[in-house]
Amino acid sequence: MTAEHCFETVLSGERWLAPGRITVDDHGTITAVSAGEGATVLPGIAIPGMANLHSHAFQRAMAGLAERAGLGEDSFWTWREVMYDFVGRLTPDDVEAIAAQLTVEMLKAGYTAVGEFHYLHHDRDGTPYGDLPEMAERVVAAARRVGIAITLLPVLYDSGGFGGMPPAPGQRRFVNDADRLLRIIETMRTRHRDDPEIRVGLAPHSLRAASPGALAAAIAELDAMDAAAPIHIHIAEQTREVADCLAWSGKRPVAWLLDALPIGPRWCLVHATHIDEAETRALAATGAVAGLCPTTEANLGDGIFPLEAYLAAGGAFGIGSDSQVSISPVEELRWLEYGQRLTTRRRTIAAPPGGSTGARLYHASAEAGARALARKAGAIAPGMRADIVVLDATHPLLAGKTNDAILDAYLFAGNANLVRDVMVAGHWPVRDGHVPGEEAIAADFKRTMARLTV
Question: Which of 44, 80, 217, 230 lies 20 to 30 A from 261 at CA?
Fold first, then answer.
């Protein structure tokens, strides 16, 4: 069986079809896209869904709770201590309630897939659960309940710092050696192998938290299971991280990683904020995706990624919500561009000569973000997943806008959420801005927050 969907406007590749038809098979794959009207023309503008390539679901419950100044200078490292304290309170039920509410917000904002960088593995005292992937199952259950596609990235975390330093007490819920982490991955792959909306990869937390031996062993075992599985890693997020890596190895983090491992298109290097010119060119040449999270990087005081030089070198990038201080692809892309404008004191940094800033940012992040999650998505075209966002064409912010000006207005004309409907693999988890069951999910989240914030 196939279904035909006809919209006032469809963005297919770089073509704007007005109206346009999209045919989807019963597996949720697009089989045809063409211009012209169908039997019923649905109002709205159909654009590719956006991949959220970097998420820590539980941190949505922390948003707004880490903004009180300390007695000294605050930084990522002081924020991390607040996070350790908060994470020590969470139960599996809490995590599922938080993840479900987060997923509702993601879908309604236009994210159709999420990469969950999952490092909260164990009970509050660090003891593994009887069912080793208990916490992973809760995040996956929330995603499937609400209807977003998920790429689960269980995190390898065996050290407390460069050179195999022992983990700190606040890290006890995260710690696994390579063997136990691979058991979590294998279990999740086996349990969910028949669900195309669940993909499983690997996430070495960072060079400071994944020792070289464990890193190499985990990747080798993953390759034996699935040589195409995605691999994500935090890297060069903080200047102190760069300094510590230099002291440990004599190399900067990205340079060390590129020298040590065969980095390629299945990899996502998250943040990569502090990279020099040589690292920028070398990273771009690998085909790996830079996972950029501008609202989190701003919130934590990380710094600004060298986007202009990276794009000039042909680099690929996607976006993520990371610490969940913002659940909006619009805000991530807008601030990705605005950060460049503020540092260069110029405009339209991401745009090609004579081209659209919004179109360049949206196309690039949707396509590379989907690749980072091992999803055949990011464009409305035959053979791709039917992951589609429908914008409200009647909204005043889009009045008079056609073609690429639609994306420019979507990203740069205001803060109203223009997303009306969302399709994931041919299904509609969002209709008219509503997710079925969202009221009960919100009520559960509010009860959870009332207990956690006492």
Answer: 80
